[in-house]
């Protein structure tokens, strides 16, 4: 295989392989990368422009990925998939975002998250096995629907959702404020409170929902960037589904989140942000080495300021990539190279130990892409500000990184809080009392205030009123 990066037979116009950590890829993965770069050149990159301009779902691109067997990237070989690992998943998403289409990369990220959540519990599930066996042949696109309109980016807290047991299965209701591929996916992994949750929002379950069970209104989708990814609201309106559509046991939601949904989303979405950053550096290289100022006889790339911009962006982006790939390698090592048979033992959670590392990966990648998009716009000047160069689209796509849940505000607080106060202090489901805050607030009440509050609390404890205002 050539060590030179090519683009339609010519030398690639952006950064070459000397700035890519090729040493972490196997020969098979390098071959896949080369095939994907070529597919991006011939097809995906042009479709990205159409998706962005007209809010078109990138189905054509996803169909092309299916032809390469990429929808089954993580699916074990026994089920007809590629049986690939975490590093490969990150490489594929990064390559899609960098050379092809960032919206496709995000739809694919959510697809891989859904595949991982399904593979975690496919062992006793003929319905999931059937999807995985047909995933590329029938181009079966999956997605994750978690975010709730009432709790925003706290996607692990689905208050507008629920499920009940029925004689034949489950009745599921879900309102999701955002779902990538919403209305376009063929299958959805959906998280709701468990049928028996009894007010405990930590008690969550996952269900497999099929396309015709989902209400959506794609015509209403609009957004600053990633405009092809069609992340509109969806609703599952008390749909009755068969018993075998429960993914894993009742109450498996938190385990599924920590072991699969979060690790894969954080690994692959970070790869998407890194790919966008690299895509902008590639464009900036191409543009600044061609554009000349006749008065001084210099190309834009000859100015030391521009060289500094590019140098710093490469180093920061490669630091973000190095962390993402390093965590991909850590996940590979912990899972015998992404061997799903480990989960025949239902309590196995080899990935979850790295969750706080995955938070760091996403924070760094999303923070970096915001900075790089700014600097690469500056480097390309007014030409970058106009859509034709492509920097402008990437800049808008990049903005999704920071705000996608878990948002960067939430992540930095998680990491700082965990480091300072311990894991228990994270209190995802608002269950542990912060006595310091409570006592401090109580100090502010006078005797009357305390009496009124005590009466209110007593009434509530005795079931006379619903809640303390
Ligand atoms: C392009 C795109 C694709 C998406 N795709 C999917 C998908 O496929 N599936 C899915 O389930 N969801 C998806 N989402 C939703 C996403 O994960 C978030 O749920 C959503 O962006 C939250 O939006 P919001 O307006 O409710 O933000 P809010 O949650 O209201 O956040 C507003 C602000 O409050 C901050 N904030 C929130 N909580 C805290 C806290 N505890 N401490 C400090 N600050 C806090 C936030 O960081 C942010 O700055 C997608 C979002 C985008 C942008």
Automatic annotation (TrEMBL):
Superkingdom assignment: Bacteria
Regions crossing the membrane: none
Keyword field contains Secreted: no
Family affiliation: Belongs to the acyl-CoA dehydrogenase family.
Keyword terms, alphabetized: FAD, Flavoprotein
Pfam families: Acyl-CoA_dh_1, Acyl-CoA_dh_N
Alphabetical list of InterPro entries matching this protein: Acyl-CoA_Oxase/DH_mid-dom_sf, AcylCo_DH-like_C, AcylCo_DH/oxidase_C, AcylCoA_DH/ox_N, AcylCoA_DH/ox_N_sf, AcylCoA_DH/oxidase_NM_dom_sf
Single GO molecular function: flavin adenine dinucleotide binding
UniProt-recorded name of the protein: Acyl-CoA dehydrogenase
Domain Acyl-CoA dehydrogenase/oxidase N-terminal: start-end pairs: 26-122
Ranges for domain Acyl-CoA dehydrogenase/oxidase C-terminal: 292-418
Organism: Cystobacter ferrugineus
Keyword Iron found: no
Cofactors demanded by this protein: FAD
PANTHER family xrefs: ACYL-COA DEHYDROGENASE, ISOVALERYL-COA DEHYDROGENASE, MITOCHONDRIAL-RELATED
């Amino acid at each position: 295989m050539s060590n030179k990066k090519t683009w339609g037979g010519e030398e690639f116009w952006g950064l070459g392989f000397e700035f890519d950590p090729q040493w972490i890829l196997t020969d098979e993965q390098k071959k896949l990368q080369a095939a994907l770069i070529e597919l991006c050149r011939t097809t995906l990159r042009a479709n990205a422009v159409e998706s962005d301009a007209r809010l078109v779902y990138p189905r054509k691109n996803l169909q092309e990925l299916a032809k390469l067997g990429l929808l089954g990237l993580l699916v074990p070989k026994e089920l007809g998939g590629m049986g690939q690992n975490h590093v490969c998943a990150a490489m594929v998403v990064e390559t899609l975002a960098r050379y092809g289409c960032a919206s496709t990369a995000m739809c694919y990220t959510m697809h891989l998250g859904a595949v991982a959540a399904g593979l975690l519990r496919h062992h006793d599930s003929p319905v999931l096995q059937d999807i995985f066996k047909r995933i590329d042949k029938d181009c079966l696109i999956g997605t994750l629907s978690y975010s709730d309109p009432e709790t925003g980016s706290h996607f692990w807290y689905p208050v507008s959702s629920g499920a009940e047991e029925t004689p034949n299965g489950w009745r599921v209701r879900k309102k999701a404020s955002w779902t990538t591929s919403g209305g376009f996916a063929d299958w959805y992994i959906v998280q709701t409170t468990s049928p028996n949750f009894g007010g405990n929002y930590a008690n969550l379950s996952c269900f497999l929902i099929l396309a015709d069970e989902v209400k959506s209104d794609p015509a209403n989708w609009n957004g600053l960037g990633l405009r092809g990814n069609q992340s509109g609201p969806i609703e599952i309106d008390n749909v009755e589904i068969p018993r075998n559509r429960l993914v894993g046991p009742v109450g498996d939601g938190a385990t599924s989140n920590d072991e699969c949904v979060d690790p894969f989303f954080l690994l692959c979405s970070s790869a998407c942000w890194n790919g966008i950053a690299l895509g902008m550096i590639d464009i900036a290289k191409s543009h600044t080495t061609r554009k000349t100022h006749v008065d001084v006889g210099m190309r834009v790339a000859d100015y030391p300021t521009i060289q500094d911009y590019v140098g710093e962006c490469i180093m920061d982006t490669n630091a973000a990539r190095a962390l993402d790939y390093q965590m991909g390698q850590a996940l590979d090592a912990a899972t015998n190279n992404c061997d799903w048979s480990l989960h025949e033992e239902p309590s196995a959670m080899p990935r979850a130990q790295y969750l706080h590392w995955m938070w760091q990966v996403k924070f760094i990648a999303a923070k970096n892409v915001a900075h790089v998009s700014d600097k690469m716009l500056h480097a390309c000047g007014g030409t970058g500000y106009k859509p034709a160069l492509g920097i402008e689209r990437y800049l808008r796509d990049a903005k999704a990184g920071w705000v996608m849940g878990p948002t960067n505000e939430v992540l930095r607080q998680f990491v700082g809080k965990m480091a300072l106060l311990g894991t228990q202090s994270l209190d995802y489901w608002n269950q542990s009392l912060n006595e310091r805050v409570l006592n401090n607030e109580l100090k502010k009440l006078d005797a009357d205030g305390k009496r009124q509050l005590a009466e209110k609390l007593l009434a509530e404890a005795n079931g006379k009123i619903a809640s303390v205002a």
